[in-house]
Design goal:
Helix content is 65%, strand content 3%. The protein is mostly helical. The chain has a domain at 113-246 and 346-351 and 369-448 and 471-501.
């Protein structure tokens, strides 16, 4: 008798899902545009300081002009996608650290006697603090987190899920103002000056609540990762040589560590000296057209902002090469060049996924659906009759939902900042309004493919996937859902408690006017 073969059900590959979503958005934009779906809200002009009525309408791509736009913009949009170039450059740096043995030696030395929970907590804390450098932290920390867990004899999938959750849920949390926060404050004050022309926000207005949120969120994400995610991910099968190998710190490896750490320290000292203002010949890498130090460091035209990924990649190359020379794992220029390309081996699938997401995001952005949703919520908040706390909760939940469709903080706040005057009229300070918005925007961006760095998370999940089935988009979202839900509840509790108790947000800033 013939044995019946049962075909294994394979889920929809992320690339196929993204292409389907492209067609859905095209058709949906045509339908919504046909019914003239739009939203109107009152926006304060940054030039005149007066209210101006702004209308956001859905733009149809289900038309000849829409199809022309898609075909003419796809190549340029893919080529100019920051995540593509940044990821490739960082992988070049990571490749030589891996191939030379530097990364494996350092990680094993640092983690072999540490508890699993301690390593995870350290990773989460680093990811949350990394919000100060903005979205660039995703292309650095997601691949490194996978290697941190891999060399720690744990599934790299856990590291990828955990780091992405910490990066997204902690994206609105920082002890010090980031360049994004500085831009948000400018928009906040533009709207606040409608009510009070002399209103000002300080650099340390959020420091107290941010310190608490960093600690609380770090503990929460660590517990979810260790108590839930670690039990849910598939078992990872390590190669036999990795299972049997134990780190022996030979003289060559010790010399390699001394070389690499010495070279890396010199590089960092030179770089740090050039971002410190006021010292002899220092501060050469700052943008002096800006006022605040954080803007001098991270403004859009600054050296640091435009060159950060390359700065990090050069550091990685120096560490890997110096270790390779000292440990004799890199003996000639051919081995050096081969090491640079090590992490780019098999990158084809990642490139295809990034290409697919670039098409989807380009189409979705052009449809203007995200802006219409945000504008509709902003109008409802501004015209509602709610009191202070209900209005804040409404803003928080509206931001959570809107961030699924408009995850860019600056674009979203350019619309939601119009709610600041309405909140001030019920006694809520502009600082607290902005904080609530930032927390709401952090909750859900890890759940949406509209967020461009979601593809980095998805791509590395697939890179370390040992199953014959692809990691589907739904599966990737399911892993992030517990973090998003618990973060939502945590932030909501903090907002309510802070508002009722009237605790200061930081230096010179409170929840009420």
């Amino acid at each position: 008798m013939k044995k019946l073969r049962v075909k294994e059900k394979i889920g929809l590959h992320p690339v196929m899902m993204l292409l389907i979503l492209c067609f859905v958005v095209i058709i949906l934009s045509g339908i919504l545009s046909f019914f003239n779906v739009q939203a109107t809200y009152s926006k304060v002009s940054s030039i005149t300081g007066d209210y101006e009525v702004t209308t956001e309408a859905v733009k149809s791509l289900f038309s000849l002009s829409g199809l022309k736009y898609i075909f003419t913009s796809t190549v340029a949009n893919f080529a100019n996608l920051a995540v593509l170039s940044n990821l490739i450059i960082i992988l070049i740096g990571i490749g030589i650290m891996v191939k030379s043995g530097f990364l494996k030696t350092v990680i094993i030395l640092l983690t072999k006697k540490a508890k699993k929970t301690t390593v995870t907590l350290f990773l989460v804390l680093i990811c949350i603090i990394a919000s100060i450098v903005g979205d660039l932290s995703y292309v650095v920390l997601v691949p490194l987190s996978a290697l941190l867990f891999l060399y720690g004899k744990r599934s790299p999938i856990i590291g990828i899920i955990t780091s992405f959750a910490a990066l997204t849920c902690g994206s609105g949390i920082s002890l010090f103002l980031t360049s994004v926060d500085s831009s948000l404050i400018t928009m906040t004050l533009t709207n606040a000056h409608i009510i009070n022309g002399d209103y000002a926000i300080g650099q340390f207005s959020f420091i107290l609540i941010m310190f608490l949120l960093i600690v609380v969120l770090s503990v929460i994400i660590t517990n979810i990762s260790e108590g839930y995610i670690a039990k849910k991910v598939p078992k990872y099968e390590f190669p036999e040589e990795d299972v049997e190998e134990e780190l022996v710190l030979t003289k060559k490896k010790m010399r390699g560590l001394v070389f690499s750490l010495g070279a890396g320290l010199i590089y960092l000292l030179i770089f740090i000296y050039n971002i410190i203002p006021g010292l002899p010949f220092s501060g050469n890498l700052l943008d002096y057209s800006q006022t605040l130090y954080i803007d001098k460091l991270f403004s859009y035209d600054s050296f640091f902002s435009n060159g950060f990924v390359f700065v990090v990649a050069v550091l990685f190359v120096i560490l890997g090469l110096a270790y390779g020379i000292g440990a004799k794992t890199i003996n000639n220029n051919k081995e050096f060049i081969d090491a640079l390309g090590h992490s780019l081996n098999g990158i084809g699938k990642i490139l295809v996924m990034i290409f697919a997401v670039s098409i989807f995001i380009n189409i979705f952005k052009e449809s203007n659906i995200g802006n219409v949703i945000a504008a509709a919520f902003a109008n409802m908040i501004s015209t509602s009759n709610f009191g202070g706390l209900p209005l804040l909760i409404f803003l928080f939940l509206a931001t959570v939902i809107s961030s699924l469709f408009l995850p860019n903080a600056l674009n979203s706040w350019s619309i939601f900042s119009s709610t600041v005057p309405a909140l001030m009229q019920v006694g809520v300070s502009p600082e607290f309004s902005q904080l609530v918005y930032r927390l709401g925007g952090s909750v859900a961006i890890g759940l949406t493919p509209v967020f461009v760095y979601f593809i980095v998370y998805l791509a590395f999940m697939e890179t370390y996937n040992q199953s014959n089935k692809p990691v589907t988009m739904l599966e990737a979202v399911k892993y992030q859902m517990p973090f998003a839900l618990v973060s939502l509840l945590t932030f909501l509790v903090v907002i309510v408690v802070w508002y009722i108790a009237g605790i200061p947000l930081g230096i010179g800033a409170g929840v009420a006017l």
